[in-house]
Amino acid sequence: MTPRTALVTGASRGIGRAIADQFKRDGLRLLLPSRQEMDLLSNRSIDAYIDALTEPVDILVNDAGINRLGEITVFSDGDLQDTVQTNLVAPIRTAQRLIPGMMLRRYGRIVNISSIWSAVSKPGRLTYSVSKSGLNAFTRSLAVEVAPYNILVNAVAPGYVNTELTKQNNTEQDLESIRKTIPIQRLAEPEEIARLVAFLCSEHNTYLTGQCLFIDGGYTCQ
Known about the structure:
alpha/beta, Rossmann fold
């Protein structure tokens, strides 16, 4: 396989770290910007990081995201703006800056990490659901635009995953109840999500584009 360079946001922990580890095992060159290097709350910071790159980026994984819980009467303007900026605007901006190079080389793979909460929801998830639903729409629209250039764009929508973020938003009692609602009866491990992302970003994927793949142990099938 041709050596490729992948940029992964949110790779310091959880699903993003598992994706980076999988890519490393697959022999990819990695760009893993920290929050200090590329602040997703700032389009200027995103532009500055990408402008400073000295090598072409073949693969983009937009994993970084925030999930501030709060019902409509509770969340602030700042919560809404930060969530939409981080989860939707930043992925659009990053792709927008990298796609011209992919077009020139006629190769690219982009995966946006969405969520089951883009299709279903529950109280307190409004801002997060809105941002992830938008990410799905962005995935479909972009896939159609760039398909002639051999750039494939997909989204992966995990369900409950055994990460720090999941544990922050749920007590152990909550998690035990959640496991009972999942047909497979357990949370996903980050490595399981990473393997799916790795396939979508690989040269083995030659035709799958514009899709949002739910990897949730059957949760949304009920």
